[in-house]
Write a structure and sequence with these properties.
The protein is an alpha/beta fold and 403 residues long. It contains 15 helices and 13 strands. Strand 3, helix 4 and strand 4 form a beta-alpha-beta unit. The model has no long low-confidence stretch (mean pLDDT 93).
Amino acid sequence: MIYRPTYVNKIMAFVDTPFVKILTGIRRCGKSTILKMLIGELKRRGICEEQILHYSFDSLEYEDIKTAKALFSHLTQHLFPGGKTYLFLDEIQEVRSWEKVVNSLMTDYDVDIYVTGSNSRMMSSEISTHLTGRYVSFCIYPLSFSEYMMFRKEYTEVLDTRTELANYLRLGGFPAVHLQNYAPDEVYTIVKDIYNSTIFTDIVRRNQIRKVDQLERIVKFVFDNIGRTFSAASICKYLKSENRSIDNETVYNYLSKLESAYILYRCTRFDVQGKEILKTQEKFYLADPALRYSVLGYSPDSVAAMLENIIYLELRRRGYDVFVGKLDNAEIDFIASKQENKLYIQVSQEIGSPETEKREYGRLLDIRDNYPKYVLRTDVFAGGNYEGIKTMHIADFLLSDEY
C-alpha cells in the first residue's frame, strides 16, 4: 500500500471536528485504500482498535444492511461505550437514505464519521438537505504523475521522467494498473472494466436509462473531443448524421450523469477582459487518460488533448478552480485560481515554428497583469523564460512544488 500524503494530510486536518468527511471520486481511484490509511494514522495517534468501526457496503458481508433503519440499529449497537467512535463507511451509497443515519449519529452520539462513494447519490440534494453545514467533501483522483512515480519505484523499474511521462499519459493513473508491469492491452482491459461498471451500474441501472446505445454514442463523441469546446447542439448534429434523433436537454442530462459518476469534469470558459464566467462552449476532461484509450483505442494524434487533460487534473488536485480563458478571439488553455493565487497556462506538445511560438506566447503576453504565466511543452527547448513567461517541460511542472 503506497501512502498518499496529499489526501491523508488534507483529511486528517478535520479529525475530531463536527463534520462528516465525504470522499468522492470515480470507481477504483483509491478511496477505500485512503480510508485504510486514515485508520492507520489514527492508530499511530493512539486511537485504540475498539474505537474504530470500518464497513465496506459493497461486500456481501453487509448485504443485509441496505436500509437506514438497519444501518442505524447495527451501528448504535457497536459504538464504543467509553468515548468517541470513529466510523469508516465505505461505498455508503449502497444504503438507502444513509444521510439520515449519519445526521442522527452526529447529533446524538460521540462519533467522527468518514464515508466514501462513487456516484451522484454522494453529492445529491439529499446530502445538502440532511447534512447542511455538517460535511466537508474531498474529491479523490487517480494517481498524479508524482504518485505514479512512487508506484513505479515500488513495483517496477523506473525510467527517466520524460519516458515515464509518456507511459503515464498512455496508461493513466488508476492504482490497480500499476501494481505490476502490465502491457498496455492489459491495462485497457482493466480500465474498460472500470468504465463498464461505472456506466452500467452508476448511470444506466441507477437512472433506469433505456437507450443505452444513445448514451454510449454520446460518451464516444465526448471522449473523442476532449479538450475541444463543443455544445449539446453539436452532439445532436453528430447523432443526426448517424440517423439518431436526440434533443439538447437529453444530451445535457447524459453529460450531467457522466459528471455525477466522476467520469467527466466540466471546464467552463472565463472572459479575461469581461471578468465573467461564460455559459456556452465548455470543455470536458476525463478522470483519467486511460479511459479514452480503453474505449476508443490509442492514437498518437490524441496526445496533445491528453496532455491538456493531465494538466487540468493536476491543477484540480492542487485545489485550483480551473477555467478555459477567452481573450478576444484567442483562447488561453487554462486559468487556474486559488484564493489570491492565479496562473495562466498554455499547453503544447511541441512548438515547431516561429508562428506557433508567437501564437502560444503571444496569447499570454496580451494578458496585462503580474500573475505567473507558463508555457508547458514536451519537446526540446532552449532557455526557461520568454519575456517573463516561464517555459517548463510538462513532466517538470507536474513534479514541481512551486505553484
